[in-house]
Amino acid sequence: MLIREKMELLERTYLSPFAMLSENSRGRDREEPQCDIRPVFQRDRDRILHSKAFRRLMHKTQVFLAPRGDHYRTRLTHTLEVSQNARTIANALRLNEELTEAIALGHDLGHTPFGHAGEHMLNAICGDGFRHNEQSVRIVEKLEKDGEGLNLTWEVRDGILNHQTHLMPSTLEGKIVRLSDKIAYINHDIDDAIRAKVLSEDDIPKEYREILGDTTRKRLDTLIHNIVMNSLGKDDICMSEEVGNAMQGLRKFMFANVYRNPAAKGEEKRAEDVLSRLFSYYKEHIDKLPVQYLDMMEEGETAERVICDYIAGMTDRYAIAKFEEYFIPKAWQVNSLG
Questions:
Q1: Which position has the higher pLDDT, 266 or 200?
Q2: CA 84/CA 274 separation, integer angstroms
Q3: Which residues contact 332 (CB under 8 A, 6 or more apart)?
Q4: Would you tell me which of 66, 140, 173, 250 could form a disulfide with 99, CB atoms 3.0–4.6 Å apart?
Q5: Is the pLDDT assigned to residue 23 strictly greater than 80?
Q6: Rounded CA gap, 73 and 105, in Å?
Q7: pLDDT in tens, 223-273
Q8: Which of 3.30.428.10, 3.40.50.720, 1.10.3210.10, 3.40.720.10 is the CATH number of 3-265?
Q9: Are the beta carbons of 43 and 28 closer than 8 angstroms?
Q10: How far is Cα of residue 188 from the mean position of the Cα atoms in its chain?
Q11: Are the beta carbons of 143 and 91 closer than 8 angstroms?
């Protein structure tokens, strides 16, 4: 018996009857030989981890644009925190931890430079619209590996696509990531906002602190425990009404006091202008795009779509460097593409 087959047997023996078993995956768009060591979701996790899009998350904004300090979250550290929260929940519920981790690591691959400001800008100027969850799927299906994609399983792609609030994944593992994403960003954004002196712990409404806790550690502990205890033995991932309402209230508080706060978002208009001008420049100088994107146009993709693909894949600093290259006189440039 192969090592992979032994691991699949262990899943059948140990995991919850509600878990998605690796051997029951709907499979990949392109059939390929099975690995003799790793089940399919573990392979997907590894493919995402080694992708270029995953590495670029290190230099993409989470909330605070170009913060002064080394300890603010980036899109990569956000992703790792989502993964850790999700794995803890999946493990406690005896669900498939490797599927959960693969979805978590891939859920934000399609995020733009400059956080949601970049996403809003591309959505406004791209004729087909732009949504980062759909772009994440596009990356793993088409853009990675010079157009080959990562050929991930259906379950991982479904979880990545449907991690947004208004959507719902098909697996419990995907539902865990969907909730873990909110738990992570609400709590680490509070931590970053306190670090930036945008708010203090005392600014958080007392009703939420009394239910969820008055520190990041306590809130994480409350939320994760609540999901586990309310989902045990169920074919669903859920929270108690009290804790769920408190989390939603805290999320609304963050939108009102942090996500739209000029101290956190004061530079967004400039960031949007950078991407808008880059988009216009590439429309007029389409030959400046890398060969991979020009080839996609030969295959029938529109210019707007491939320009969005290229800009969305940029890191913050690469977008700034390209802006300087095209629009700032050489003698004034302070950034370098090297």
A1: 200
A2: 34
A3: none
A4: 173
A5: yes
A6: 15
A7: 999 999 999 999 999 999 999 999 999 999 998 888 877 765 667 888 999
A8: 1.10.3210.10
A9: no
A10: 14
A11: no
H or E element, residue 224: helix 216-231
- Token look-up 């009102």 returns 256
Nearest C-alpha neighbor of 110 from the set 130, 84, 129, 80: 130
Q: Among candidates 117, 126, 130, 127, which has minimal Cα distance to 273? A: 117
Write down the H helix ranges in 285-315.
291-298, 303-312
Helix axes 115-125, 303-312, angle to 10 degrees: 180
At residue 290's C-alpha, the angle toward residues 289 and 296, to 5°, is: 85
Query: What is the domain partition of the chain in residue ranges?
Result: 3-265, 268-332
Contact present, 189 and 254 (Cβ < 8 Å): yes
**pLDDT tens digits, residue range 67-107?**
666 778 899 999 999 999 999 999 999 999 999 999 999 99
- Find the length of the chain: 338
Query: Look-up: residue for tokens 């991932």?
Result: 237
Asked if 136 and 160 touch (Cβ cutoff 8 Å), the reply is yes
Mean pLDDT, the chain, whole residue set: 93
* CA 154 – CA 157 distance, rounded (Å): 5
